[in-house]
Amino acid sequence: MEKNSAIARALNFFDDGSFFALLADWVALDTGNPVDNGTTQMHQYLKEKITPFLEDMDFDCRMVENPLEPFAPFLIGRRIEDESLPSILIYGHGDTVPPMDGGWQEGLVPLVLTRRGNRWYGRGCADNKGQHAINLVALNCAISERKKLGYNVIILIEMGEESGSPGLHELCKREKKYLEADLLIASDGPRIDPDVITIFGGSRAVFNFDCSITLRKGGHHSGNWGGLLANPGIILSHALASMVDKNGKILIDGLRPESIPFSIRKAIEKLTVRGEKGPAIDSWWGEPGLSAAMKVYGWNTLEVLAFTCGTPDRPVNAIPPKAWARCHIRFTADSNPKKFLPAIRAHLDHHGFSMVEITEVPNNYGLATRMEPDNPFVRLATTSFEETLGEKVVFLPNLGGTLPNDVFANILGMPTLWVPHSYSGCNQHAVNEHILESVTREGLQLMTGLFWDLAEKIPVRA
């Protein structure tokens, strides 16, 4: 048995078109409309696409209904060689954002996987069907060559990640006995650069809240009342400007990281963020004195996502009665989100904005997580990847975006390795979503090699 044989099997599966055909079949099933009659497709994806693929590898699979949302079921698959062996948990999600028909490039259909040069276009191919397809095919190749892995594998696929993973925390608490493992391996999000093999150990989290002002019941003629009635839009604009300055620096101490461990700062400072194949980076924006990498991986941000005052679609000459803004904070593991609203309230009151109402948005979930660079599993994966492709690997303590990683790190209590097979310009939540053929082919090699190396090097339980 040789690692190279398993990798060759994976490459053959890719090069003969089998991987493209598999992913095309998975993309063709619309799993982007969970509320509008999409419940059937969500179950169908797990039952007809994922389950047969896992059962061919001798997994025992069962569908689990979501304790909170019926449109977002779960699939748990278990391949147990021996209960005394170490176990890994592989996670992915089969739901997508809506197809967004009509806005794609000419000739592209969201649910038809289409190859154009180095790009494969299709809804969900990057987020997340293509990424967990890579991992499951790689696992299949390792099993086909080895027969016995020397460790157990548990699979968890959810269908509600794009809706905030409702029920995932509750499921993992309820099914903890069946999901316990020594390591999580998952793939989502982007590489730091398309050509750079990337591992990250956690993610920032997000805290959404609304700021609003209601001064009166209706609008009043600006000619008759201008200068006499306070304008809620102007007041709210100033309130927001007191929280974050014109260059994006957060002005409330309670919304900034409390501390950054030296090991984390050192790991992040090694990174270079160029923003390739995306919008140009505004180097003047954000916390002064921080590198681009530190701003997105090691610091918090306060954003205004939406702002309404009056009737934007049909403005009239009237002083509006109210104004509203949706804001959010992306925060690192150095921050306690329970302190955010009290800090905002105290700040606004101190600056004369007691009329601003603050409301937490119900869809907040999870805590920020990260992993230390010297974790043994980080070293194992890094060594495996560098041996497989002979290229340098970059490790991020956490992703800049948000994933439900706290479920695995905190509730299930395991180290977490995320290996992204996409890049930041993939348009995963927009029209023209795509993956890169070159990165996908690399991903198959990397993950096949990792599953093989885990068989040789995963720590044995005491």
Automatic annotation (TrEMBL):
<dbReference type="GO" id="GO:0008233">
    <property type="term" value="F:peptidase activity"/>
</dbReference>
<feature type="domain" description="Peptidase M20 dimerisation">
    <location>
        <begin position="217"/>
        <end position="352"/>
    </location>
</feature>
<keyword id="KW-0479">Metal-binding</keyword>
<keyword id="KW-0645">Protease</keyword>
<dbReference type="InterPro" id="IPR011650">
    <property type="entry name" value="Peptidase_M20_dimer"/>
</dbReference>
<dbReference type="InterPro" id="IPR002933">
    <property type="entry name" value="Peptidase_M20"/>
</dbReference>
<dbReference type="GO" id="GO:0046872">
    <property type="term" value="F:metal ion binding"/>
</dbReference>
<dbReference type="Pfam" id="PF07687">
    <property type="entry name" value="M20_dimer"/>
</dbReference>
<dbReference type="InterPro" id="IPR001261">
    <property type="entry name" value="ArgE/DapE_CS"/>
</dbReference>
<dbReference type="Pfam" id="PF01546">
    <property type="entry name" value="Peptidase_M20"/>
</dbReference>
<dbReference type="InterPro" id="IPR051458">
    <property type="entry name" value="Cyt/Met_Dipeptidase"/>
</dbReference>
<keyword id="KW-0378">Hydrolase</keyword>
<protein>
    <recommendedName>
        <fullName>Peptidase M20 dimerisation domain-containing protein</fullName>
    </recommendedName>
</protein>
<dbReference type="GO" id="GO:0006508">
    <property type="term" value="P:proteolysis"/>
</dbReference>
